[in-house]
Design brief:
Structural class: mainly alpha
Radius of gyration: 23 Å
Largest sheet: none
Distance between the termini: 64 Å
Number of helices: 2
Helix content: over 70%
Order of helices and strands: HH
Number of domains: 1
Shape: rod-shaped
Strand content: under 5%
């Protein structure tokens, strides 16, 4: 069985949605959130790489004009 959001499933069931549709919806949302978490971690890595590159370029520019 796939990862499922229990609170969403319970809310859908309380709202009168059939069990199979509630389960599928909760699993789909959980998969979507997992994908978003992976994207967020990739963006964090890209920010770190960009900052390091910017610091290196600034160091080269400063060195060029102060030597």
């Amino acid at each position: 069985m796939a990862l499922m959001l229990g609170k969403l499933y319970d809310a859908l069931r309380a709202g009168g949605v059939p069990e199979d549709k509630s389960r599928e919806a909760a699993e789909e949302v959980a998969t979507y959130e997992k994908g978003l978490a992976e994207i967020k971690s990739d963006v964090g890595l890209l920010k770190w790489i960009t900052g390091t590159t910017l610091a290196g370029v600034l160091a080269l520019v400063i060195r060029t004009f102060t030597s």
